[in-house]
Structure formats: structure tokens, C-alpha cells
Amino acid sequence: MTFQNGFLWGGATAANQCEGAWNIDGKGASICDHNRAGSLTKQRVFDREILEDEYYPSHTAIDFYHHYKEDIALFGEMGFKVFRISIAWSRIFPNGDDAEPNEAGLAFYDKVFAECLKHGIEPLVTLSHFEIPYNLVKKYNGFSDRRVVDFFVRYATTVMERYKDKVTYWLTFNEVNFATLPFGALNVLGMLDDRTEDIFNPVDNKQERFQALHNVFVASAKTVVEGHKINQDFQIGCMIAHATSYPLTPNPEDVLLTQRWDNHFNNFCGDVQVKGEYPYFIKQYFAENDIDIHFEEGDKDILKRGTVDFYSFSYYMTNCISAESGKEMTMGNLVGGVKNPYLKSSEWGWQIDPVGLRYTLNKLYDRYQVPLMIVENGLGAEDTMNETGEIIDDYRIDYLRDHVIAMSDAIDDGVELMGYTMWGCIDLISAGTGEMKKRYGFIYVDRDNEGKGTLARCKKKSFDWYKEVIATNGKSVLEKR
Predict the structure, then answer these.
(1) In the chain, how many domains are there?
(2) Catalytic residue status for 175
(3) With 0-12 CB in 10 A as exposed, 13-18 as middle and 19+ as buried, what is 382?
(4) For the segment 304-356, what is each residue's pLDDT rounded down to a tens digit?
(5) In a domain, 3, yes or no
(6) CA gap 121, 109 in Å, rounded
(7) Which pTM value belongs to this model?
(8) Which of 19, 122, 208, 376 is an active site residue?
(9) Is 226 noted as a catalytic residue in this protein?
């Protein structure tokens, strides 16, 4: 089966990883602007005060702020139907609790969306992509303070009203389920405490963390309700980091442990945002861990009324789970696991599993029965130019081709898949490490890990490959399988 007409082929980015211009035209500092660069062997450091002699990758990133016309033209040349982009909250409300929005910030995205539409590209806008104004962190400790819900909804409705005729597709919070893990709380919830030393060592108070997550759910639901009032044609989705895992063996203990992980990490947040209520298994987890979520009056109702229109997710790799200790481990999208002996791994230790994408799509569609969209998928690699100035990234083409085939197979299975935005369609800084050398894009950006380079853009071999995939609606891959 071919992909349906109107399938949304495209690519994805995030403001804090590509925009730069961190303190110009009225933009305030976001939490991401306080993160120094790291690597696989050196954790990123979070500084409460920005230091003059340290390097903060988001401050310039790839300078999309000044290159957006050039970049969007390249996406248009590839034939993108959709471009996933996030709005920097602190570019619109520099402190988060400002009385009025920053007009210069609003005007920037006016120009970006106009450029997208000029090239026939639908914007897909993430409202919060691991990003929150730093003032809301410092003054309110992020979403642990209920007042931040109202600040977010005001921001969300401000941009939805402004761009209601330019943007149809919206996502509320990126990979919100990382907040279920201690190291994921910082960027998702904007919470700090005196023990915070780096971005992988944030808040570990479960009561406070899950209460903050509840506030995020409420903020998302209120945004869905208000967004549909602004434009009834809006399509508003959630975004979950799906860390698909298999039992390492048929040992029932492995199977049970895998089920518990799947429920806690993958299913909990999706259940709340798609079904509008807390699932039974998380209530039991709360009871076992002395967590008591405070629901304000009207919270249950707003969660029910503010369910999303579609479910979007990231998928990069799979891992295994074992009840036995001492097994060989592997890396992943902030979440690792036990190594699967049947899979190959990328340079960064992420196990490549296109069949797992088909499995995941079927699992999610069976659970939720709403349209699905893959909004992050791709291969990070250390791309290098050859002697003729070309970047021959056949390894990326192989990865993407196999995942396109898996998507087609899932559609044949009956899954309703609305689109696919490959992550990092243009090289950008890594969220996990702040590196540039871990590249995903179809477009190379001359920038290194120390922030040096001309920022010149260069097409990789995969650029023309993906252009053909889009032009043929996937047939160029499926006819050669």
C-alpha cells in the first residue's frame, strides 16, 4: 500500500537547538540558555547564572534566527509538506509572567510561518520543547507552582490567536513523559533545587515532581480547550518519547518488568492526554510511593474536555529489560537499557530497530484509536566531507529507508498514520549533550562542538534521497524493497 494522499512528510527542529539569537529583540533567557556543552563522557552543566567565559550552545546554535529564509527554502526544495518547529516561550514572554507579549518575538514567527506557507509547507508548532523562561524557574520553581499553568495558557493562547490563520497543527509539550524520571524533570517541568549540579541531576522529590507533572497536564488540557475556541479546525496533539522495550528472555519476571516499565514511562502520560484520566497502574504507583496528587476544583473535568486530537511521538531505537543484574547495557534517547543481541547499534550506541517501529505503531493505535504522527526519528552520526566536499551519508539513507518501509507496513496493518517529521532535518545542537558532531540532518551546517565555523549550509546525499521519497509519496522506497 502506498502512503495516503496528503501524508505529511517533513522534518523537525526545536528553537533552543537551532534558533540562537538568545538575547536579542527582547528575548529573555530560557532554562536551556543556562546549559553548557557536554559530551558522551562529560555531562552538561547547568549554571544558575550565565558565566561570561563559558560556552552555551543555544546562544548561537545554528543561527536559524538569521538564516530561516535560506533554511526554509531548502526544506521547500526537498518538498516538505510539514515543518515541525517550536516557539521559544521566552521570545514571546521574556520573563514568563509579563503582562504583555514581546511584539518583536511575535513578528519573528509571523515571518517564519509566512516563509513556510510561501513554500507550501504546513507548520507544526510545539509550544514547549524542553523550554521554559528562566525567570519562571527562579521565581516559581517552574510547574511546581500552580500559577505557572496560567502563565503557560496565556502564552499558548497568545500565539494561537496570533497565528490562527497560518498554523493548523500544534503540540503542547515535547516528550512530556521524561518528567516521570528524575533526570527528565529539569527541562520539562522547569524545577530546580539546591542539589542541582547538571541537567542529569535535577529534582528527585517524587511528590513535588508528579504534582508539577499534573500541573503540566492541566496546562495542556486547558490549551486544547482554548485552542479549539480560537479555531475549531486546529489539530492539537500530545508528544511522547516512546522508549519501546522488549523482555530480554521469556522469563515471566522479564515480561512483567517490561510491562511495568511500558506502563509507567510510555503509557501513563499518553493515557492522561488522550483518554483524559489517570490510569489505574499509576494510581497504584502513587499509593506505593506515598504520592498524593492534589486536584483543584475542575481539574478532572478539564482533563476530560482537553483531550488531544492526535498522538505524536519520538522513536529512535529499542532496548531490552531483564530482571537479572549484570547484563550488557546500551544507550538511548536519555533512556538506555539492556543490549539486544539481534540488533546493530549507531555510533552513539542506540540500537537500530525499524521493525520495532511497526510494532510500536500497532501498539499505540490499538491503545488509543486516534491518528498517529511520528515527529522525531533519525540517525545521529559524525558526518564528514570527502575530498570533493561531498557528504555521502548512505548509513542515514539506509536507516531512514528501513523506517519508511516499517511505516508502510504499519499502514497496511490498518494503523492511521498522518505524517512523519524526521528529527534534525538540518544539523543542530544535541539536546542531551550540546554537541554538534552528532548530526542528524539532510543539510550540513559548518559548526563544531566549540561553536566555531562559518554556519554555511551544505546538502548531504540524503537530501536528494528524501526529496525523491516525498515526490513519489514513498514509492521510490517501496518499489525497491
Answers:
(1) 1
(2) yes
(3) exposed
(4) 999 999 999 999 999 999 999 888 878 766 677 889 999 998 887 889 999 99
(5) no
(6) 14
(7) 0.96
(8) 376
(9) no
